[in-house]
Amino acid sequence: MPLPLSELAEVGEAAEQVVLTLHPSLRVVRSAYPVVTIWQIAMREGENEPSRLPADGEDALVVRPELDVEVRRLPPGGAQFVRALAEGATLLEAARSAAAEARTFDLEGNLAGLMRSGAIMGVAAR
């Protein structure tokens, strides 16, 4: 089961020592192409396609916490953040790694996205 928000909120000042357990189905897809936009267009029923696709690549979070597959566009630094967490980095280490890749990295926003997608399974101290 995904981690309840209340348990993640208890982490607070311990970010230097906290390691997150991510859902085993979680994958990060980094692409030079707008893969999330293309996937969203393919999933629409009876809607017109946009006249132009974004020119930039997109990073995607793919997870299946229940029966449905979730595909979410990751914000700047998000792919690096998730990969670092998946490799066992602490929350602080992963955030620093992501901020080094993207100056606009938003820790709160990225954690909220992981929570909404059901990607966080547990919290442990290292």
Might you state the CATH topology name? Outer Surface Protein A, domain 3
Distance between the termini: 22 Å
> Major sheet: order of its strands?
2-3-4
Total number of β-strand segments? Answer: 5
**Low-confidence region ranges:** none
Q: Please tell me what the overall shape is.
A: globular
CA radius of gyration is 15 Å
What's the level 1 CATH class? Alpha Beta
Order of helices and strands: HEEHEEHHHE
Return the CATH architecture: Alpha-Beta Complex
How big a fraction of the residues is strand? 15-25%
Helix/strand-derived class?
alpha+beta
Describe the fold and architecture:
It is globular and about 50 Å long. It has 5 helices and 5 strands; from the N terminus they run H-E-E-H-E-E-H-H-H-E. Helix 3 (78-86) runs antiparallel to helix 4 (91-101). The strands form 2 sheets. Strands 2-3-4 form a 3-stranded antiparallel β-sheet, with helices on both faces. Strands 1-5 form a two-stranded antiparallel sheet. The protein has 126 residues and is of the alpha+beta class.
Can you give me a brief rundown of this structure?
The protein is built from 5 helices and 5 strands. With 126 residues, it is of the alpha+beta class. Helix 3 (78-86) packs antiparallel against helix 4.
Structural topology:
Blueprint: H1 5-9, E1 18-22, E2 27-30, H2 35-43, E3 59-63, E4 70-73, H3 78-86, H4 91-101, H5 107-116, E5 120-125
Antiparallel strand pairs: 1-5, 2-3, 3-4
Helix pairs in contact: 3-4
